Amino acid sequence: MRVVYLLGKDNNPDVINMTLEIVRKTEKSVFDIVGVFAAKPLSDAETDMPLNKSELCCYNPFELVRFRSFLVKNKVNIIHVQHITDVIFAKLASWRLPVKTVLTLQDKALDVNGVFKLMVPCLLRRSDALLFILDTQRKNVMSRYGIYQKKNFLVSNCLFPRKVDTVEEKSLRDKLFLPSDCYLIGTVGDFTAERDFLFVCKMVRQLWKKGRDFHCVIAGRRNKDISGLYNECVSYCLKKCILDYVTLINTGDYDGVMKQFDVFVYVVKSDNVGFDMIKAMSLGVPVVVNDTEVTRELSHNGKYAYLYKTDDVNDFAEKTNAVMRNENSRLIAEVVKNEVNVQYNASSYITKMKNVYEDIVN
Q1: Which of 303, 348, 294, 362 is nearest to 129 (CA)?
Q2: Is the pLDDT of residue 340 over 70?
Q3: Which three-class secondary structure string do you get for the chain?
Q4: Whole-model pTM?
Q5: Quick count: other Cβ atoms within 10 Å of Cβ 65?
Q6: DSSP run (H or E) holding 84
Q7: Which of 265-269, 281-285, 295-299 has the lowest mean pLDDT?
Q8: CA-based angle 313:315:321, to the nearest 5?
Q9: What pLDDT score does 167 carry?
Q10: Average of pLDDT values for 254-280?
C-alpha cells in the first residue's frame, strides 16, 4: 500500500501538523507513505523530525507533470487529500492511472467560493472515497449533496502530542498580574466572522454581575480584512465597563495559552469539527460550549464538556460559573483528558486508515 499526501494552499495549520504527525508515526509495514506534497513551504518547526524517509516537496498547481511522474515512478495506490480543491489536482495528475483519490472532510474542507463552490457536488462524487470526522458531519454533507451511494468512512482526527505537550510555559498570570486564586477563563481562535468573541464578552458581563473573581483571555490572530470584529469586542467591553476583566491577545500560540486556562469557553457558530474543543479536553481543561449536534457528539452528550443553550448568554454565564464553583471540575477534566487522548491518539487513527486504504484498493 503506497500513499502520498497532498496538502494544498487551503489546508489549515492543524491539518498540516496532524498529517506530518501521521507520517512520522506510520511504519512501512502498516502502509508506505512515499511522499508529502505541500503547496506552502513547511517551516523548520514543522519538519524538525524525520518523516520516515518520505519525500517532502513543495509544489504549485502548474506542476502536474512532475507530480504525475512521481505517482508512476513510486507506484502510488492512493492520493490522500484534505481539502475539496485538492481533488482537482489529484484527479488531473492521476488521469488514467490506477490511483485512488481519498478526501478527508476536515474542518473548512468545503469552504470555497465562486466557481469552486459550484464544483463541490461534482468533486465529492469524483472522489473515490470520503472520510468524515464526525457522524453528524457525514449526515449533513450526504444529505446536502445527495451522495448517499458514495463509499464513505467515519474516522476520528488524531492529536499531535509533539505540538501540545512541548508548549512553552509563558505564565499569563504573571503577565496579567493575577493572584493565584483568580479564575482564568478564556477562548482561542482567529478573529474571523466564524468566531463569536463578542458573545464571549457578553457572557463575561453576566459573569461579572455574579461577583466572581475571574479574568477572561481572548487569544487569537487578528485578520486585517475584518479588524472590525476585534474593535467591536473592545468597544463593547469599554461601553459595559468590563475591560478590566477581559484581555485580548494577538497570538497564534493557542496551545500554550489554552493549557493555562482554568475553564475553556467556546462558541460554535458553524458545523466545524471542533479542533479547539478537542485540544482543550486533551489538555485537561474544563470546557463550556454551546449545545449543537457537533458538540453533543464530541462531548458524548455532555459527558466530556458542559453544554449551554445556544445564543443564551445567561445560561452560558451560569454554566461557566457552575464550573468555577465545582471544586472537582479539574479532577473530572483529568479523567476526560485520559479518555480523549486514548480516543484521538495517532496509533488508533493509523489502524483505521490502514483498514480504509485496504478497503478502497481492494
Answers
A1: 362
A2: yes
A3: CEEEEEECCCCCHHHHHHHHHHHHHCCCCCCEEEEEEECCCCCCCCCCCCCCCCEEEECCCCCHHHHHHHHHHCCCCEEEECCCCHHHHHHHHCCCCCCEEEEEECCCCCCCCCHHHHHHHHHHHHCCEEEECCHHHHHHHHHHHCCCCCCEEECCCCCCHHHHCCCCCCCHHHHHCCCCCCEEEEEECCECCCCCHHHHHHHHHHHHHCCCCEEEEEECCECHHHCHHHHHHHHHHHHCCCHHHEEEECCCCHHHHHCCCCEEEECCCCCCCCHHHHHHHHCCCCEEEECCHHHHHHCCCCCCCEEECCCCHHHHHHHHHHHHHCCCHHHHHHHHHHHHHHHCCHHHHHHHHHHHHHHHHC
A4: 0.83
A5: 9
A6: none
A7: 265-269
A8: 105
A9: 45
A10: 84
Q: Is the pLDDT of residue 236 over 70?
A: yes
Give the single-character DSSP code of 264. E
More confident call, 281 vs 45: 281
Pairing of strands 129-132, 152-154: parallel
**For 7-82, where are the alpha helices, taking DSSP H only?**
13-25, 64-73
Helical residues (DSSP H) of 240-328, grouped into ranges: 254-258, 275-282, 293-298, 313-325
Beta bridge partners of 5: 36, 80
For the chain, report the end-to-end CA distance as a whole number of angstroms: 11
Distance CA 273, CA 255 (A): 17
Average confidence (pLDDT) over 192-218: 89
